[in-house]
Amino acid sequence: MKNVFVETANVKAYHSALSALEERGAEEACIVVVDGAPGLGKTTTMKQHIAQTGSIYLRAKKEWQPKWMLNELLDELGVEKPRGIEQKYAKVVSELALRQQLAIQNRKIFTLVIDEFDHCSSRPAILETCRDISDMLELPTIFVGMGKVNDNLKRFPQVASRVSQKVRFDVMDKEDVRRLIDKRCEIRVADDLVTFVAKMSKGYNREVLEAIASIERFGFRIDVGEDGITMADMAGEKLMNDRASGTAIIVPEVL
């Protein structure tokens, strides 16, 4: 499978949100919430963003407390961890400020991305720590979750008021499924098989990538026609597992 990042409609929506963030009115409104079910490409999009901008990525933990979060942040920044929590906080702020200034000089956006934020989106201490850092530096902060973040933040208006952009990752349409297959699959895929992949995957990136891997494993063993590998070619072969039941989805000869 080709190691290529594919810009789907979800990715475009995320980039639009970042552009809008840079043009915000209230400087303290620095938070972006990215929500959506698992398997829609949120983490992949964030990692691409990190690679392009040099931003900082954290994965929230269920039992996070401010000291634990600050320690992980200092690890990601690659600096020595002071002993006291006040000193840890001050070190985080100073290091983030340095990275932010360097990004500004290079005309890049610098952000703090916290993935799996559902784990701590109802924890006042974590939310206040994130808000303090974001406010102090006017630092764009991205909360990435699986559907609960926006609802949880409603209980904390002092944080919710800082959210300037909300991006919801939705399932892909057939056009995006075709784009993902064309860009990442090593073998040409016929329209009927693309349609079947779109239908069976229900538009989830993770399932489409699983289907691509199956198509490649089969396709490398046969002579593929000019139109690409078809449903008839793969009839009887496993394409992917069903998300809900976990059972194998077998390719029929026709739709």
From TrEMBL:
<dbReference type="InterPro" id="IPR052026">
    <property type="entry name" value="ExeA_AAA_ATPase_DNA-bind"/>
</dbReference>
<dbReference type="InterPro" id="IPR049945">
    <property type="entry name" value="AAA_22"/>
</dbReference>
<keyword id="KW-0067">ATP-binding</keyword>
<dbReference type="Pfam" id="PF13401">
    <property type="entry name" value="AAA_22"/>
</dbReference>
<keyword id="KW-0547">Nucleotide-binding</keyword>
<dbReference type="GO" id="GO:0005524">
    <property type="term" value="F:ATP binding"/>
</dbReference>
<protein>
    <submittedName>
        <fullName>ATP-binding protein</fullName>
    </submittedName>
</protein>
<dbReference type="GO" id="GO:0016887">
    <property type="term" value="F:ATP hydrolysis activity"/>
</dbReference>
<dbReference type="InterPro" id="IPR027417">
    <property type="entry name" value="P-loop_NTPase"/>
</dbReference>
<feature type="domain" description="ORC1/DEAH AAA+ ATPase">
    <location>
        <begin position="29"/>
        <end position="151"/>
    </location>
</feature>
